[in-house]
Structure formats: structure tokens, C-alpha cells
Predict the structure.
Amino acid sequence: MSHIPHRSHWNNRWTFMLATAGSAIGLGNIWKLPYMIGVNGGSAFVIIFLLCIFLVGIPLMMTEILLGRRAQKNPLDGMNVLALEAKTSTHWKWLGGMGMVTGLLILGFYSVIGGWVLRYIGASASGAFSNITAMQSTENFNQLLASPFSLLFWHTVFMMMTMGVVARGVNSGLEKANNILIPALFSILLVLLGYSMSVGDMQAAYQFMFSLDFSKLTPTVVLSALGHAFFSLSLGMGSVMVYGSYLQKNVSIARTTIYIALADTMLGLLVGLAIYSLVFANQLEPSAGPGLIFQTLPIAFGHMPWGNLIATLFFMLVAFAAWTSAISLVEPAIAWIVENTRIRRKTAAFFLGLIIWLLGVAVVLSFNEWKEVKIVFGLNIFESLDKLTSTILLPLGGLFMAIFAGYFMKKDHVQDELNLAGYKFKLWQMTNNYIAPIAITAVFLYLLGVIK
Ligand code: TRP
């Protein structure tokens, strides 16, 4: 019914919002943010993370969308087109290329964690969490990690789900499902939060996450927070750029960005509060690491009325959120292959899926057989992939996107896309041209030991 113009604008805006929100909201909010807060000492991390979202994440999300909308292409060809338009070197296309590779590296471990979630749907449904103790829950999770076959099986299922959708072409049905499922996820979280509030130690959780305590602030905390702002908003690799190319010209990039970023951030913080109030009430370890939500949530679900049902629904919604994010991690690379070679979409999805799956096999083994195999900085395979992508490749991608939009593109082209006037444009310019690049560079230099 797209012959009704107003209606069709509205639809377009929603398609974009939902696709981008679907990409942003995922394991990053529900699985990663909570444990990162714990590993990085609580409130110091949260405060820097929020600063990074507002001062770096939001402006760079606007930048990435504007690059995508202007280019109307996959990230590599898109950067090429934009470079030509800006009359500068087409080497900028390698920025798009780097992003596509980054997406594949992320999916290599993302899919394994997506597998954990799938495993937990079945466990919830079968009542495995009924009246579970904290010890049993940790034990269950450790058993899963110790079993390469189980991990491999669920990783394989998750990869098949992801590549199955990608092979068919980005399926707008899935994006529409977001329309119901993301609010549903929010609602279940509120239930969880209410429960945590009544039985858990919400005060301790609040203190841990929000009290102004900079004593635990270290350069690694800052780097992790910056990296996670990128990860959580899907920035720096081209996911948002590709989705930005769907966006109707007359839709406000700034407003859409702010909605998405706020929803994404709120969701993560709500999960964090729910989890930490359980952690403190059950004397669990806040810095448990990647297993945190899988160890704590079953305790809550196992004791609440209707717990099995709520847990099953919860893990299904998380799996769904992870699924829509995973798709956005490969879509840029697939789009590039399909647009540049004679390889068919299905074939491309199959082979790319195979490569990512193999990477995932190594990640699976890094939780058991290859636990001690160190790759970089004394980290195992899973940790290396995570650190390399979140703390280096994504911020680097974002840095160059900001520089490109701020210093190479013509100002009227940027202004034409952003369609902001006066102080609003200035605000974007300030953050994109100065604050974000300087912040990212400073963090990098500090880590390289240049600034002491
Ligand atoms: N943002 C998603 C999450 O929070 C993960 C994700 C999807 C992503 N696409 C991305 C992360 C691109 C970085 C870059 O789960």
C-alpha cells in the first residue's frame, strides 16, 4: 500500500528504526554489559560508559547513518563513492573493508554466546531451574562450558539461524517482529526487576552501579567502557551504515539516533540492576565474567512464581535479540560479495557462514580444551577476539568515520543529510570533529604508553 505517501514515509522510518534497534539491542546489553560492569569495578565503568555513549556513541551513530544514507551502498563501495564525491583518496574504501572483517570476527564469538542462550531456553522449559541454589546454578553453567559438544551444537544452530536469514536476503518480517518482541523484552525485564527488587539487594546494586566512586578508575576501565559503547550501539563496522542506506531522506537522523541509543542503554542498565541485586543478595561474585547472567538469572527464575515460563520467554526474547544483531554483523560483507561478484547470495552466505563457524569452533574450545592457549596479551581465543574487536577495531573504525565526515566530506553534504541547524549542528560538529576523535586517540595513545 505504498502509494499513500505519508504512510510510506512512516513505514520507512519504522523499518529503519526497528532494523537498527534490532542490531543495537542484543547480547551486548543483556549478556555483556552486566558482566563488564562487574569485571571493571562497578560505578566507575558505568559512568565512563554513559559519558562515552553521549559524547562519542550518539554523535558517531549519527555520522555512521549519514555516511550510509549518502552512499546507498555496502560499506566498502560506499566509502569509495563518498571518497569520490569528496574528491579525496579512494583508499577510504578500506575503512569499509576493515569493518566487514570486524563483523565476521565478532560473529565468531557472538554466535557461541547466542548458543548458550539457546541452550538456556530448553533448560528453562524443562524446569531445570526450579528451586535451584546459587551453587547449583554456577555448577550447571560450568558443566555447559566444559562440554565442547554441547557448545558446538548450539553454536551450530545459532549460525544456521543467522545465515538462513541472511541467505534469503534481509527479511523485513524479522524486523517487523522486533516491533512486538523488543517491547516484550522490556516488559519481562520489568517483571524481573520487580522480582529482584523484592528479594534481592537493590540498594547494594544501585550503590555498586551508580555511586560516584572513581577509586577503581584505570585506563583499562576507560578503554573497556569506550569499546563497549561501540559494541552496544553496533558502531564502527558498517552495520549501522548499511541500515542507514534504507533510511528515507526526510527522516531526522538525530532524533532516531537518540531514541535508539536511549532504549539500548536503558535496557542494559535495567538488566544490570536486576542482576546485581541478585548477585549481592546471594553472595555471588560480581566479577564472575562472561557467565554472570547465566549463573545469576536462573536463581531468580527458579524461585519466582511462573518461573519456568518466564525464564523460557526471557531466554527466547534474548535469543531473538541476539539473532537480529547477528544478522547485522554479516550483512555488510554479504552485500559486498553479492554486489561485486557473480556469487549468489545463498552461496556467499554458506561459505562465509562456514568460515565464521570455524572461528566459532576455536572459540568453543577456548572455554575448555584450549583454555590455556593464549593469543595476544595473555588472553585466550575468545578473550582475544572480543578485546581486539571491541577495544581496537570498532573505536578505530569510528575514529576514521568521524574524521572522514568531519574533515573530508563537504560541509553542505553533511548538513544536507543531518538537516540540523544552528546550535544542534554545532553540537554534532563539536562532538564529531573534536571530542570523539580526541577521546578515542587519547585512549589509544595512553594504552600504547605514549601518554603516561
Ligand atoms: N550491538 C549488538 C549487541 O549489543 C552487537 C552488534 C551488532 C554489533 N552489530 C554490531 C557490535 C556491529 C559492533 C558492531 O549485541
Q: What stands out?
A: The chain has one domain: 13-447. The CA atoms of residues 201 and 433 lie 43 Å apart. The two ends are 61 Å apart (CA to CA). Residues 23-24, 26-29, 106, 231-232, 234, 237, 239, 325, 328-329, 394 surround tryptophan (CB under 6 Å).
